[in-house]
């Protein structure tokens, strides 16, 4: 089961420093996490101020592909669909990064490219839910929105709004233009972040200690994934701290996976060499990494620094109040707890604890996705200026090398 796999992973990857400090300097073991917000506990959220728009294609992705066959290549992903929670995970994943279910035996299938659906203003998914987006920023070049499965209270995805670029490898076909794309996305993600930082209630509740804008800018956890779960280039933009459960998942290396997470700092260094690299859909990532390793940009070194800094910054800013939670969880089991001598002390085990159910409720209580809520449920909008349903200017513009194979 899930708890067993998490427990054994914990044994294999024991954190180097045993404890982390949260609000009030209270210390908790890094092999534990707080769970289940007490009734009435509320953390401040920051509603989206974007003007609401309507869908432009009244249908589903399959109908868009049928009507405009040239678009079919940009409307689907190759994924492993989690049998437990339904999340479309990257085809290389062995564990679902939303609920920790084992994916080793799950077959690779096609899923709808949600980010393309956003950009074309598609009304709804095949399964019936609306393809609205928790939008934070839109320019002609960039879309920034809240991640539906947020790992931090402020977690965005930033995507190009003009070009179809399936993943970060294709930036290598035109390195200097690739750097411009990253610059544009980062600029808009940071502008969206400032709305959160400048909200005093949010800032004082979420971030431990006083922190300046510049200090926070240096702590944003930002990377590309390969393979991605959505085949449109997106920067994962996480403003620490990670939520308690997600921090624990990062500790046991179930986030920011080595050989899957590619830090923006690494990709920038590679692009700054301005050594174009021919990429097609099947170009092995290992081949790319080896090539740039040979030019002095070492992936393993960059990844290790990124991973350790992500954990350290999350711990430095973690401001969770122990008194806001019912339980502490260790090895997949929940316990009542007390705070004695400034440290969390486990009490009696809680019977009937289902980790995934509690995680879902805790996430919904703190996430900024879909704010403001509408009737207790997340709200959203369609994009203000959708792409025309075509390839080329006005629609999805081709990036060098993307359609050549």
Quick structural gist:
The protein is of the alpha+beta class. It is 29% helix and 20% strand.
Describe what this molecule looks like in 3D.
This protein has 405 residues and is α+β, with helices and mostly antiparallel strands. It is built from 11 helices and 17 strands. It has helices at 2-12, 61-67, 114-120, 175-197, 200-206, 213-217, 244-251, 264-272, 285-294, 299-317, 355-366; strands at 19-21, 27-29, 32-37, 76-81, 88-90, 109-112, 135-138, 142-146, 154-160, 163-164, 221-225, 235-239, 261-263, 325-330, 333-340, 343-349, 397-398. Strands 7-8-9-12-11-13 form a 6-stranded antiparallel sheet. A 4-stranded antiparallel sheet has the order 3-14-15-16. Helix 4 packs antiparallel against helix 8.
Low-confidence stretches: 1-16
Shape: globular
Largest sheet: 6 strands, antiparallel
The helix-and-strand class reads alpha+beta
From N to C, what is the helix and strand string?
Answer: HEEEHEEEHEEEEHHHEEHEHHHEEEHE
Helical fraction equals 25-40%
Q: End-to-end span in angstroms? A: 42 Å
Strand content bin: 15-25%
Number of strands: 17
Instruction: Round the mean pLDDT to the nearest integer and report it.
Output: 93
Element layout with pairings:
Blueprint (H helix, E strand, L loop, with lengths): L1 H11 L6 E3 L5 E3 L2 E6 L23 H7 L8 E6 L6 E3 L18 E4 L1 H7 L14 E4 L3 E5 L7 E7 L2 E2 L10 H23 L2 H7 L6 H5 L3 E5 L9 E5 L4 H8 L9 E3 H9 L12 H10 L4 H19 L7 E6 L2 E8 L2 E7 L5 H12 L30 E2 L7
Parallel strand pairs: 10-17
Antiparallel strand pairs: 1-2, 3-14, 4-5, 4-6, 7-8, 8-9, 9-12, 11-12, 11-13, 14-15, 15-16
Helix pairs in contact: 4-8
């Amino acid at each position: 089961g899930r708890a067993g796999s998490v427990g054994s992973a914990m044994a294999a990857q024991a954190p180097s420093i045993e404890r982390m400090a949260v609000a009030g300097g209270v210390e908790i073991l890094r092999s534990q996490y707080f769970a289940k917000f007490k009734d009435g506990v509320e953390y401040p959220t920051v509603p989206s101020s974007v003007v609401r728009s309507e869908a432009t294609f009244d249908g589903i992705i399959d109908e868009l592909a049928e009507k405009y066959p040239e678009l079919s290549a940009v409307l689907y992903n190759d994924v492993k669909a989690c049998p437990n929670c339904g999340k479309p995970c990257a085809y290389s994943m062995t564990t679902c990064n939303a609920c920790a279910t084992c994916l080793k035996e799950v077959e690779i299938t096609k899923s709808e490219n949600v980010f393309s659906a956003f950009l074309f203003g598609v009304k709804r998914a095949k399964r019936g839910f609306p393809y609205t987006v928790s939008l934070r920023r839109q320019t002609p070049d960039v879309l920034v929105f809240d991640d539906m499965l947020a790992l931090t209270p402020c977690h965005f995805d930033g995507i190009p709004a003009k070009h179809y670029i399936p993943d970060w490898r294709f930036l290598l076909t035109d390195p200097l233009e690739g750097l411009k794309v990253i610059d544009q996305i980062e600029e808009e993600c940071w502008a969206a972040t400032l709305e959160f930082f400048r909200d005093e209630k949010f800032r004082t509740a979420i971030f431990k200690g006083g922190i300046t804008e510049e200090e926070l800018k240096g702590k944003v956890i930002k990377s590309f994934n390969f393979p991605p779960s959505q085949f449109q280039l997106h920067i994962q933009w996480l403003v620490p701290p990670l939520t308690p459960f997600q921090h624990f998942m990062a500790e046991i290396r179930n986030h920011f996976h080595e050989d899957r997470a590619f830090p923006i700092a690494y990709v920038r260094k590679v692009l700054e060499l301005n050594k174009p690299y021919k990429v097609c859909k099947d170009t092995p990532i290992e081949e790319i990494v080896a090539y740039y390793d040979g030019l002095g940009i070492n992936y393993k070194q960059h990844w290790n620094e990124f991973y350790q800094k992500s954990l350290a910054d999350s711990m430095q800013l973690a401001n969770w109040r122990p008194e806001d939670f019912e339980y502490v969880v260790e090895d997949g089991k929940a316990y009542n707890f007390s705070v004695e001598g400034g440290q969390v002390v486990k009490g009696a085990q809680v019977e009937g604890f289902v980790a995934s159910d509690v995680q879902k409720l805790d996430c919904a209580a703190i996430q900024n996705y879909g704010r403001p809520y509408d009737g207790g449920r997340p709200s959203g909008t369609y994009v203000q200026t959708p792409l025309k349903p075509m390839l080329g200017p006005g629609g999805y513009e081709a990036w060098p090398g993307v359609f050549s194979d």
